[in-house]
Amino acid sequence: MKKITVIVVVCLLFIAGALYMRMSGNPSQSVPDQSASDMIVVGFSQVGAESDWRMANTKSMRETFTEARGYKLLFRDAQQKQSNQIEAIREFISQKVNYIILAPVMEEGWDPVLKEAKDAGIPFVIVDRMIKTSDESLYTSWVGSDFRKEGGTAMTWMEKNFASDKDLVIVHLQGSRGSSAQIGRTEGLQAGVSKNLGWKIVVRDSGDFTQVKGKEVMARILKQYDKIDVLYCENDNMAFGAMEAMDEVGRTYGVKGEVTIISFDATHKGLEETLAGKINYNVECNPLHGPRVEQIIQLMENGNTPSKFAYVDEKAFDAASITKEDIDARSY
Ligand code: GZL
Question: Which of 135, 171, 250, 326 has the most CB atoms around it within 10 Å of its CB?
């Protein structure tokens, strides 16, 4: 009798153990990797999570490079630090990924690590912002925005709405200094100001593309300038912060206010504020790069050479004409 009891207890313990292992998802119990070797391994070094635009960009890349679609994505968030991006790229090289994708936080300082990737025979795709390099062969392809053109679009709108000789007090909130987005949008404003002699940039400071910094910088500027005609803000999140700062001291802005706001990105929230008349003009910067980068990778997978540069089409939205349908029609 005793022997049977022991056997039954042992069997029950074994079944319980097996059930536990299965429930806990222990890898040794999970389904073996389906042809893991067939997966295209993509290492993606992302700038960070500093803005709504960046989150939309990350979402587009994550939705594109999924295992169900044949990819293994190694995603690294650099928290807006180039040193973290360089470390991530070296990790990708050591892991022998098939492709390295870089959204560079700034333009300078990439050649050494690009060379290491080239020496390892790993194709390099740059996305969003641009890099400065002494050897264009160090990367295969770039897809992103024409930031100088975005700034020019904003100037065209300003010239339609402000006479060239009108005395304009302009406050300039720049993005992360040294990034292509900041460099191009700043060049656009600079070109407009040098053409329209009444326009004056009275102060320029960086909000690093974040809402918190944008608010902090604008709060300081509001103490120094009791008359501001235009806020030229290099992305929506800094504009949101600047609006908070103006609300706190009772300064008005937008279509019915003192300060005309020009912003960039045309994120969902940015367009809602434009529809509400709080942002006067919003220049789109399209973040949906996932499919574009995949197209480049697929070309290379099939032995073809992708074009070196691909600019995305972008538009702009005026508070005077934007509709709710314009916003509802967009995927971010
Ligand atoms: C632009 C992108 C910029 C956005 C910001 O392509 O690099 O970085 O304008 C983001 O919102 O932080």
Answer: 171
